[in-house]
Amino acid sequence: MSGTSADGIDAALVRFDDSVTHPHCELLLGRTYPWPDEVRVRLVELGQGADARSLEELGSLDVQAAMAFAEAARAVIAEAGCDAAQVRAIGSHGQTVRHRPEGARYDGQHPFTWQIGDGNVVAEHSGIVTVADFRRRDVAAGGHGAPLMPAFHAAMLHSADEDRAVLNLGGIANFTLLPAHGDVRGFDTGPANALMDAWCARHRGAPFDAGGAFAASGQIDAELLLRLLEEPWFMLPPPKSTGREQFQLDWVQARLRGGEKPEDVQATLLELSAATVADALRAHQPRTRRVIVCGGGVRNERLLARIAAQLPDVVVETSAVYGLDPDFVEAMGFAWLARQTLAGLPGNLPSVTGARGPRVLGAVYPAG
Questions:
Q1: Which of 340, 361, 364 is nearest to 141 (CA)?
Q2: Which tens digit of pLDDT belongs to each residue from 187-203?
Q3: How far apart, in whole angstroms, are the C-alpha atoms of residue 189 and residue 126?
Q4: Which of 184, 145, 191, 183 is nearest to 337 (CA)?
Q5: With contact defined as beta carbons under 8 Å apart, do 48 and 97 qualify?
Q6: Residue 135 CA, distance from chain mean position
Q7: What are the CA-CA distances from residue 303 to residues 96, 212, 268, 324 (Å)?
Q8: pTM (predicted TM-score)
Q9: What is the pLDDT of residues 235-251, one digit of tens each?
Q10: How far is CA 325 from CA 12, 104, 207, 212, 330, in A?
Q11: Is residue 120 within 8 Å of residue 334, measured between CB atoms?
Q12: What is the widest separation between alpha-carbon atoms in the chain?
């Protein structure tokens, strides 16, 4: 798995038991591997809306990404002391370079989502059956293709005793709403790490704000926060999803008045993430009693504290409490999705994505 931030490739070696409907999911080993520097720079640029310099470049990146995914899979398998022949399949999410579920920007039609990292190359270089390209079938069926983790979250974390929510703090924040009784829902709430990481890189030269220290050194700019919150996207009803195309530094820059201190902008971006998360939960599942947090944002202590402060009557805890490593929940989820595909079972939830119905997701690439 490589998410919106493209800050590394998460590889998770996962063991499932024999149950199809309620499988136990055990993380044997999880590791994060760095992207080659030049590849990451271009992937981030493309994710933020830049155009590919040429079809030649895009084709090359497709292969380079796939080779990096295959190498990450081989590395985690080897470190775990596992034989590749024991691995039933690789679930490979790919790297999103464009996400337009509402239609192509140039004509407002033809919805699409595009993740590069050719499954043929992953299968060939790993020697393992590979399931990839999970999102496009849901989009073809009228859905957003995202988020796809709610089905996995429901299988692992649903409770019949209380309303819960699973909050993934990746580059973008997204919720899975797990009512004790009723349909599972899920949607993106807005930026989480993507804007803060980009602002921190610009002004501190660091890829992320460790522990939220940069944000904690500043003051929230209330007027700037209001301008950011006026973004119409936040008012859209679910299903909805977004990415760097919407929330990137140009979006922030257009709302600055000039003269703001970098640390104050960072504090305000963090508060934006916390506020939009809390607003979304109050609007769509107000009786939630427990928020289970996963994703890289778990390590931003300041962000977790601000979310908890915005939701004073809700228990905010990490997925580690439930035996799911917060750093690898999403990678584990794509292993689960690959398992669903191979079993001929749907991986999407129409109540989440807005698709016309359940669909078996992804394409299967046989081992070499």
A1: 361
A2: 999 999 999 999 999 99
A3: 36
A4: 145
A5: no
A6: 12
A7: 25, 7, 11, 20
A8: 0.90
A9: 999 999 898 888 999 99
A10: 10, 36, 22, 20, 10
A11: no
A12: 60
